[in-house]
Design a protein that fits this description.
CATH class of the largest domain: Alpha Beta
Structural class: alpha/beta
Oligomer: single chain
Strand content: 25-35%
Shape: flat
Number of strands: 31
Helix content: 25-40%
Bound molecules: adenosine-5'-diphosphate, magnesium ion
Strand order of the largest sheet: 24-23-25-26-31-30-27-28-29
CATH topology of the largest domain: Rossmann fold
Number of helices: 17
CATH superfamily of the largest domain: P-loop containing nucleotide triphosphate hydrolases
CATH architecture of the largest domain: 3-Layer(aba) Sandwich
Length: 590
């Protein structure tokens, strides 16, 4: 491996701006870190370069741990967006600067400079001053200068930022050529998806300090694992659907299984489906579609963009079986793009009624599809669904908060015996003295996740993860990963060994922690720290929560009975912290 990052964390004013990032970049790979502004890309790049220290984790370059090595000794070359050249120095002196510092002989310096200028296609420009060069040419000099001392790793931070489109494309090509010719491991930071696609062998997508997904550009585009990546890499319509053994259902009708890709399991539950605009087909009638029917709609907007036609198609009321995960602001419409070929086959106009088909659907593996606020009365449900943390989470997750009046939640008159089986998404209840009863009731009625929310809870800064039953482990990790992708909080898995555990059992506990950590990483893309405590589970969790600033607890269980006894300290009184209970019944072996 050329670059190895192991749980790298960097905090500013206590808040992690790079959050537990682990990553391996191979020799000669062109790796692009992609993410919105403020997602921590530059900070991570600076940490690799040694321009900033890290608060946690390790960095290795070519197998050598450089976590505490000075920037100059790391063997990296750097190019920044505004890495101004030395204005008063010629191109030649700029490029040779790093060589002079390293006391390289003149003849060798000159030779190296000539090589580099050829490489970046600036031969003969040696004696120019930066002011006599265009912006694109200056960045080429910056690249040559970064490569002068033969670094083993080239780091580029938005190097095309200030240039106009045409020059940017030229420079892109040069950088790709130089990189191939030298075979140098390269990490480039950008917020521009097109740039990432054009350059990368692999892309790592960052958001809120976390590295969300890593993969080849086409893989990430076709099979994103998260809502964020699905919508950040190109346009995507997100729809809520119901998954069952026989496929994906939008309301009452199933979409042809051939069109569905992604995590299709037997368990019946709500899922988030990704529909790319180019995978949607329009036809005059349902019968005329060549793909699987989705809904009826009306063309609301139509923009010709040359090669493609972009449309907004509003879903016709009544075909409202189809539910957008989040309505696109001003209503429920789908984004559609059509090629010239499709346009010729079926011309449409604004206001036209069309049948909507879908060629391919990708189902996200996320277990947290949406939220349903539950309370005993309309007024309480209304109030709960407007809780800032819930609203914020739903917005970040691009999903909705549904409401559900559950008379069984009213004090005293609990009838939780009937299993409704129709809970969709995570159930949300307000924290109150009787929360334990609410939790038990909703779980008994079929909810799989219950989110207990104290009034005006702030966005969590630290998320503690614990599963009390092994059978709930995978689901708890999956839910944790799903939630944490939308928070900039730190994730800590807390395991508690019973009081009196023999010293000789400690290594087992440590091994279980490491197993949990690697499963989280390998299966769910979740990076978390681990802590091993000894004592009573409930007491230890309460202690840890109490010691944390704005914590949230994710608690996995596979038994409803005995919650009061097992989590006495945690659930006996009004919960003080937001808590997400993940409940999965143990699988019955047939
Ligand atoms: P990106 O390159 O993805 O736009 P940065 O790594 O530059 O993101 O910044 C990530 C976050 O860290 C931002 O919120 C930024 O304000 C903060 N940040 C970066 N550098 C510092 C610093 N030196 N002091 C305090 N906050 C910083
Ligand atoms: Mg930046």
């Amino acid at each position: 491996m050329s670059i190895t990052l192991d749980q790298v964390t960097k905090r500013y004013q206590g808040a992690p701006v790079v959050n537990d990032v682990s990553l391996e970049i191979g020799d000669g790979e062109f790796f692009v870190l992609l993410g919105p502004s403020g997602s921590g890309k530059s900070t991570l790049l600076r940490a690799i370069a040694g321009l900033t220290g890290v608060d946690h984790g390790r960095i290795a370059l070519h197998g050598r741990d450089v976590t505490h090595t000075a920037a100059r000794e790391r063997g990296v070359g750097l190019v920044f967006q505004n890495y101004a050249l030395f204005r008063h120095m010629t191109v030649a002196d700029n490029i040779e600067f790093a060589l002079r510092v390293r006391r390289v002989k003149r003849a060798e310096r000159v030779q190296r400079r000539k090589e580099l200028l050829r490489l970046v296609a600036l031969e003969g420009m040696d004696e120019r001053l930066p002011a006599q060069l265009s912006g694109g040419q200056q960045q080429r000099v910056a690249v040559a200068r970064a490569l002068a001392h033969k670094p083993e790793v080239l780091l580029l931070d938005e190097p095309f930022g200030a240039l106009d489109a045409k020059i940017r494309e030229e420079l892109r090509r040069t950088i790709r050529q130089v990189q191939r010719e030298l075979g140098i491991t390269t990490v480039l930071v950008t917020h521009d998806q097109e740039e990432a696609f054009a350059l990368a062998d692999r892309i790592g997508v960052m958001n809120l300090g976390r590295l969300l997904e890593v993969g080849r550009p086409d893989e990430l585009y076709k099979r994103p694992a998260t809502r964020f990546v699905a919508t950040f890499l190109g346009a995507a319509n997100l729809l809520l659907a119901r998954q069952s053994k026989d496929g994906i259902h939008f309301g009452n009708h199933a979409v042809n299984a051939r069109a569905v890709e992604g995590s299709v399991s037997g368990r019946e539950h709500e899922v988030v489906a990704v529909l790319r605009p180019e995978e949607i087909e329009l036809a005059p009638t349902r019968e005329a579609l060549t793909s699987s029917y989705l809904a009826a709609g009306t063309v609301e907007e139509l923009v010709f963009t040359g090669a493609l036609e972009r449309l907004r198609v509003r879903l016709t009321n009544g075909s409202a079986e189809v539910q957008l995960a989040k309505s696109n602001g001003d209503g429920e419409y789908l984004e559609v793009t059509r090629t010239q070929h499709e346009q010729r086959a079926f011309e449409v106009q604004r206001g036209q009624h069309v049948a909507i088909g879908v060629r391919r659907i990708h189902v996200l593996p996320t277990p947290l599809s949406s939220f349903t606020a539950c309370a005993a009365s309309d007024a309480e449900v209304e109030h709960l669904s407007r809780q800032p943390l819930l609203v914020e989470l739903a917005a970040r997750m691009k999903t909705r908060v549904a409401t559900r009046v559950e008379p069984a939640l009213a004090n005293g008159s609990r009838d939780c015996s009937s299993r409704s089986g129709k809970f969709v998404g995570a159930a949300v209840v307000a924290a109150q003295p009787d929360s334990l009863k609410d939790i038990e009731c909703l779980l008994a009625r079929g909810a799989e996740e219950v989110f207990v929310l104290p009034p005006n809870a702030p966005p969590p800064q630290r998320v503690l993860i614990h599963w009390a039953d092994e059978a709930a482990k995978s689901a708890t990790l999956a839910v944790s990963a799903s939630l944490l992708r939308h928070l900039s909080a730190e994730a800590i898995y807390v395991d508690v060994m019973p009081q009196g555990t023999a010293e000789s059992q400690r290594p087992h506990g440590m091994r279980a922690l490491l197993d949990a950590r690697s499963e989280a990483q390998a299966v769910h893309g979740l990076e978390m720290r681990t802590e091993l405590r000894v004592g009573n589970v409930s007491t230890e969790l309460v202690r840890q929560l109490g010691e944390s600033v704005d914590p949230l607890l994710i608690l996995g269980i596979s038994q409803i009975n005995g919650l009061a006894h097992r989590f006495a300290d945690l659930l006996a009184s009004t919960p003080r912290w937001p808590m997400l209970i993940v409940y999965r019944e143990p699988e019955v072996q047939a």
